[in-house]
Design a protein that fits this description.
250 residues, alpha/beta, Rossmann fold, 7 strands, 14% strand
């Protein structure tokens, strides 16, 4: 019979920092760089939520997060901060609460803004040095990428992750290398018409997506699992952290 687990009260918890293990890899200088870094995350869905929380845990000191949606019960299967207590809250509000449970000192600017083709250029957080495009709507995504590229801002973009179950099919590379992703194909075509080079970093999967579920007279609903969106977010956060630490290989 298993021994009962003894609960530890807050007063009994060991002293230390959530960055103790990060310091072993990054060193004090690296932690200082992360604390000084400013990163923007566009979209707090399955990909963006994982990316944003990873950046909090890595010690990034300033985040600018932008999303319009609220946390719905159907989000809880893939949202890194997807808990029942957050259902009904704006994703920006839920993320901020979760982030400050990890690092109460983090600076967060949150915008509950709708992504549209027209507003994409206006939502660019120009005070930030690094940007993560986690938008899943085609026209706003293309306009955001075009704006980030033309302004010579460091960014990484996520292609399609919905309808997939195999995280091992994810890749990190340049947009020009992407194969087998329908969203990337559409993005590439539109960027080509605007003469935007395809040499920026992206995360994509070559796993064929499951077909959406259609209700009569309604828009198709795409399925999703926790594995692929969250893994894509982890890869994006890793790229950003490695870039900040100047340990980038791409």
């Amino acid at each position: 019979m298993a021994e009962p687990v003894e609960k530890i009260s807050p007063s009994q918890r060991t002293e230390g920092s959530f960055l103790d293990r990060t310091r072993i890899i990054a060193g004090d200088e690296g932690l200082a760089r992360l604390a000084d870094a400013r990163v923007a995350i566009y979209g707090l869905g399955g990909v963006g939520a994982a990316c944003a929380l990873d950046l909090v845990r890595a010690g990034v000191g300033y985040l600018h997060v932008i999303d319009y949606d609220i946390v719905e019960y159907s989000n809880l299967n893939r949202l890194a901060f997807g808990y029942n207590r957050y259902a009904g809250l704006a994703k920006t509000e839920a993320f901020t609460d979760a982030a400050r449970e990890i690092n109460p000192a983090i600076q967060i600017v949150s915008e509950k803004s709708f992504f549209s083709a027209e507003s994409a250029a206006q939502i660019v957080a120009r005070e930030c040095s690094f940007h993560a495009d986690c938008i899943d709507s085609l026209s706003p995504k293309v306009n955001l990428i075009a704006s980030l590229y033309m302004e010579h801002l460091a960014f990484i973009s996520s292609m399609g992750t919905a309808g997939r179950i195999m995280p091992e099919s994810l890749r990190l590379g340049k947009m020009q290398e992407v194969k087998g992703c329908p969203l990337a194909r559409a993005v590439r075509q539109r960027l080509g018409k605007r003469a935007i080079p395809l040499d920026f970093p992206v995360v994509w999967s070559d796993e064929p997506p499951t077909k959406p579920f259609y209700l009569e007279g309604k828009r198709g609903i795409q399925g999703s699992m926790p594995f692929v969106p969250q893994t894509a977010g982890h890869i994006m956060a890793s790229w950003i952290v490695r870039t900040i630490l100047k340990k980038q290989s791409l």
